[in-house]
Amino acid sequence: MARTWKCSGLRWSAEGPVLEWEGGRRTALTWGKRVAFGVEEGGVRTCVGARGHACPLGVVVPGRSTGARCEECARLDRAHSVAADTLADDPRPYRVYLAWFGPGMAKVGITGVERGSARLLEQGAVCFSWLGSGPLMAARRTEELLRAALRVPDRIPYADKRAVRAVLPGTEAERAAELAELHAKAVALTGWPESLDRAPFRPVDHVRVFGPAGVPVAVGEVSELVAGGAASGELVAAAGPDLHLAAGSGSGSVDGSGVVVLDTRLLTGWGLVPGAGRGFDLPVRALRGAAGEGAGVQDGLF
């Protein structure tokens, strides 16, 4: 019987995207790699627990959930977190950033200085620029200032990001233009915390980081994993938690050789097995805004 693996998520390193597994194993994802796995026959998706601890009840969670946590573990995982504003005394320095995901889609956020740009890659930011750095609460007040004065949100749904990735402006200057205008408006505001050191506008573009040819047009996205299902495809791009796979023809939901988006957050909580030689038979739905909407065996992942 094949060994079962549990995925703990996609992380971004200086070398690119990496899948992490329970037990500490890591799989580097390089362009052109055949990503292939099967979902354990008869398996169910169980809660991944919270803050390094297993779910005490082993609660079964929905296949379409990107969190893979039961209600109680989700509450515990969010407790004592920066995102929940429960770490006001955190002494580490933080950065405030502006991130751009496509026309009309910019957000403000904060991240720990020691994390560098990893947070922006994890979110799938097409380009970004720092606004400043300082203590946590100063960063939070700056974030709130932009939200209130410029109506810049702090969240953008992943579905919106995916819908525009393949139709972005062609040059870095074009992609940074909206961000430059927003940065200028932000630094002109009064009321910035004195303890926050402002940063000049220096855009960082991620399009070539996401893939050697940017992000290709996708025909659909995996809606959920199912017991006994399988995925197999060549990795052509990655952005945020998403893998863009060129899936060959198979007996399931994908036909032809179109690119399919797999949100790796859907992998967590499932028992996964090697899938080399198998086709692609996971449920796939049309990708909103995708072109056409409405109209040999390589090494496996393991």
Notes on the protein architecture:
- The protein has 302 residues and is α+β, with helices and mostly antiparallel strands.
- The protein is 19% helix and 27% strand.
- The protein has a seven-stranded mixed beta sheet with strand order 14-4-11-12-13-10-15. Strands 5, 6, 7, 8 and 9 form a five-stranded antiparallel beta sheet that branches.
- Strand 2 and strand 3 form a beta hairpin.
- The two termini are 15 Å apart.
Topology of this protein?
Layout: E1 7-13, E2 16-21, E3 26-28, E4 34-39, H1 71-78, E5 94-102, E6 105-112, H2 118-123, E7 127-134, H3 136-150, H4 158-164, H5 172-187, E8 197-198, E9 204-205, H6 207-210, E10 218-222, E11 230-239, E12 242-246, E13 259-263, E14 272-274, E15 284-286
Parallel strand pairs: 10-13
Antiparallel strand pairs: 1-2, 2-3, 4-11, 4-14, 5-6, 5-7, 7-8, 7-9, 10-15, 11-12, 12-13
Give a summary of the structure in a few sentences.
With 302 residues, the chain is an alpha+beta fold. It is built from 6 helices and 15 strands.
Distance between the termini: 15 Å
- Could you spell the SSE succession in H and E letters? EEEEHEEHEHHHEEHEEEEEE
Please estimate the helix content. 10-25%
Mean model confidence by pLDDT: 88
